[in-house]
Design brief:
alpha/beta; Glycerol-3-phosphate (1)-acyltransferase; 7-stranded mixed beta sheet; globular
Amino acid sequence: MRIFRVLAKLLYLLWHIAVGWWTIRRHFPQMDDAARGQRVQAWSLQVLRVFGIRLRVQGTPPAQGPLLLVANHISWLDIAVIHAAGYCRFVSKSDVKHWPIVGTLATGAGTLYIERESRRDAMRVVHHMTERLRAGEVVAVFPEGTTGDGRNMLPFHANLLQAAISADVPVLPLALRFVDVHTGALHFAPSFVGDETLLGSLWRTLGASTLGAEVRFGTPERAEGRDRRTWAHDLQRTVEQLRSNHS
């Protein structure tokens, strides 16, 4: 019976993805940014419902920018979880843009793409991030640069923080965890690190029956004279504290 439930969830997920793709192609060109953001948040909330993931939000999601959001990174599911808590414009690796269907969804959600190995491209993305922040938007990054194991965080890269310094806007730290809703223990079904495959992670997540996602927002802070490397170190420590203080 379990495999049939998982297959039913998978079919529902594929249908929901198709609806999102059609909405972006058919309706997004006629919508303003606010309407698009509302659709993205509603779509992401439904994604969590399809998986049976219970969302818990602590702190106050940003209602508007300008603001740079920094979060720890665990899974391919992180973006949907954060969008479900509140819409923002993400910065993502450039190859996502070329993924079938997913690339259309990500681009429609306003994603900015970066070639991570290219210093010149990082400068280009920082410039676009700065423009978006000065326009009053909420932009989100994963400063670890890749997914971690959910237990420990990787060092924060400092490059993209230059956008917040250049635009003179605050940064909002965010901590993300996946947990067992009954015990509160960390849940590793959505893990996507090392040799783990996307298909395996997806299948585990669809089969999980007690999976919850916790999002905890901290307090906005400004650079206050710190260079980007010092600020990145301080923000990593803050996000680690937010993760450990979930209750």
